[in-house]
Specification:
The chain is an alpha+beta fold and 486 residues long. Helix content is 43%, strand content 15%. It has 2 domains: 52-174 and 346-393, Periplasmic binding protein-like II (D-Maltodextrin-Binding Protein, domain 2, 3-Layer(aba) Sandwich), CATH 3.40.190.10; 178-344 and 406-485, D-Maltodextrin-Binding Protein, domain 2 (3-Layer(aba) Sandwich). It starts with a helix and ends with a helix.
Length: 486
């Protein structure tokens, strides 16, 4: 009996010792509804603060970085800031050098502590660059910062910066493809606008319009990306699952986009080549003497079916919408993705190189870029889209509307000889509708420009009627699978 009691006491002591060594039993985390949440990988270690910070700007970022640097210096007076702005005087010329410099420095483990760039990323494939371990996982800094509340930001957009469970990139603003026209314009063109709020309705209307009109008088829109990858991005149809490194081109939504591109390909390409000059590196300029115009002008002149108007702090959008509103009935909608929501396209974004010795300062600087001081500042035109800070959307839109209340006028040449366009203010319901479009984001990912070549070489024979869909698709799928596996 004593031996059994002694054995029991020893066992109890061992269990108590094991419990004291291993700590409390693990608790499965749950969300607000009580559903279990997958436990994340261990958080990365973080660095302590240092006395230096080096920042490199990309195209059109100085207007954003300069005020943020001023705030940073006020908050961290003992930190020396070294800032290299991008020369915007000749973007097309300087961009190639900028790309080369950033890529070389990153590979060498030198260069800036913070990278800030717009969708003209210095990396052809940001995901592949992430795979190299070149960037810092910022999850550790966020987790150790009780003053930062991620719930204040658009979650779908912010999560676009997470890859393989690591938060390598922090978005700063985003675009939602919001298209505008007028009932009168679309009726005159013979375009069916009865169901533009669904993916099938919108894509079907575009395909039918171009299938029924061999030589249509209207462009779909001016200056936009009407290539197959551009449509896939705009309509939120994924092609590659980067985390799983798999290719998905067999979906019905993908086939829908390819068929829509085939219907519009010849007429859009011909008109676009007639109206625009390719400046290289993705930059275009309008040819002299082309009178399509943009915005309200292109709608009222019956040149474009739609105007994409989410740019320039909403000011351009408010102006063009008001111009149509004065004399016609506007049609306004966010391009729907297959899930029924809006698709976000990233604009400005920020990253911290893994080799940086000043990661703590870099994180502090990114927090300033995400602060209400920057996100609400309507003078920062570099943040041309919707701010990721959700509360700032209403502030920016209200400020933009203030420029056109009461009604204003602007100089504009119209087909009927009218040179002054009256701009009416938006109604409150329209403002609420726009805010809902910007908030109802269900899909967002980083665009990869390097994929464009595959579509051009593999799918163009289908678009032009030279080859069948199955043959072209098989070639595209094979090329993309090889690309992803590299």
């Amino acid at each position: 009996m004593k031996r059994k009691l002694a054995a029991i006491l020893v066992l109890v002591m061992l269990l108590l010792c094991a419990a004291s060594c291993t700590g409390p039993a693990p608790v499965t985390p749950t969300d607000a509804s009580g559903n279990p949440v997958t436990t994340a990988a261990p958080l990365p270690q973080v660095q302590g603060p240092t006395d230096s910070l080096t920042i490199s700007g990309g195209p059109y970022t100085d207007n954003l970085l300069a005020p943020a640097i001023t705030i940073f210096k006020q908050q961290y007076p003992n930190v020396t800031v070294n800032y290299t702005p991008f020369d915007d005087s000749s973007v097309a010329t300087n961009y190639a050098q900028y790309q080369q410099t950033i890529q070389t420095e990153l590979q060498a483990g030198t260069g800036p502590d913070v990278l800030v760039f717009n969708d003209e990323s210095p990396f052809q494939d940001l995901y592949k660059t992430m795979d190299t371990g070149a960037f810092c996982d910022l999850n550790g800094y966020i987790a150790n910062d009780p003053g930062f509340d991620m719930s204040q930001y658009n979650q779908t957009v912010m999560n676009a910066g997470v890859y393989d469970g690591k938060r390598y990139m922090i978005p700063l603003d985003y675009y939602v493809p919001i298209w505008m026209s007028s009932q009168e314009n679309l009726t005159n063109a013979g375009f069916d606008f009865s169901d533009l709020s669904t993916f099938d309705g919108m894509t079907g209307a575009i395909q039918k319009y171009y299938s029924d009109n061999a030589s249509p008088e209207y462009l779909l829109f001016n200056g936009g990306d009407f290539t197959a990858p551009g449509f896939l991005s705009t309509f939120g149809v994924p092609v590659i699952d980067r985390a799983k490194k798999t290719v998905d081109v067999d979906s019905a939504a993908f086939k829908t986009i390819m068929d829509m591109e085939k219907a519009a390909y010849n007429s859009q390409t011909a008109q676009y080549n007639a109206d625009y000059i390719d400046m290289g590196n993705g930059f275009y300029t309008t040819k002299v003497g082309v009178g399509n115009g943009d915005g309200a002008e292109s709608i009222l002149n019956r040149k474009n079916l739609f105007f994409m108007g989410e740019y320039s702090l909403f000011s351009t959008f408010c102006q063009e919408y008001g111009g149509v509103l004065h004399s016609e009935t506007p049609v306004l909608f966010a391009v729907p993705n297959p899930s029924g929501g809006s698709t976000a396209q990233l604009d400005m974004m920020s990253m911290v190189p893994a080799a940086s010795n000043n990661q703590s300062n870099a994180y502090a600087f990114i927090k300033i870029l995400l602060s209400d001081l920057i996100q609400n500042d309507t003078t920062i035109y570099s943040l041309g889209g919707a701010p990721v800070l959700t509360s700032a959307i209403d502030n920016r839109l209200t400020a933009a509307l203030g420029k056109f209340m009461p009604p204003k006028t602007t100089s504009m040449t119209l087909a009927d000889g009218i040179t002054t366009l009256v701009i009416d203010p938006m109604q409150q319901k329209t403002i609420a509708d726009i805010e809902a479009m910007l908030s109802n984001v269900t899909f967002c990912q980083i665009d990869t420009t390097s994929m464009y070549t595959f579509f051009q070489t593999d799918m163009t024979p289908y678009f032009t009627g030279v080859s069948d869909y199955a043959t072209c698709l098989a070639k595209l799928k094979n090329d993309l699978e090889l690309y992803v596996s590299e």
